[in-house]
Task: structure prediction
Amino acid sequence: MLKRDASASTVSYSTAGSSANCDAMTSACATELMNAASSFHKLHLKVKGTGSYAAHKALNDLYDALPEHADTLVEGYQGAAEKILDYTEAAPRTLNTVEEGLAYLRDMYQMVNALQAKMPYSELVNSLDTLKDTINSAKYKLLFLK
Result:
């Protein structure tokens, strides 16, 4: 579960193993993915300078993919667990540079790893692998395609 200190960009991850905690981690991950789509979409509109076209295209691919990953995760989890999750509202992160976007992708990768370590449903572990592949692809494009 990605947690931010309201006064800073500090991120921590919860990894306790209860079913209730997996529920909370899954809903928090889905919320973060939906918020991240908005954050990366806004960043996509303001990148400029050398490599901005490549970043613009990479961020477009990313923000298009994230809501589908959130939907797949939630629908799969709610079906497997046979319960509807609760969601809390959180403000999207503000991203002003590609470097901030890369840091966010690294944070998201760690969040997904923490959830994956606690996920009791193998099919969702595989879905989370696909999400990590999307994150890694975006990092590659942002780092090396200029």
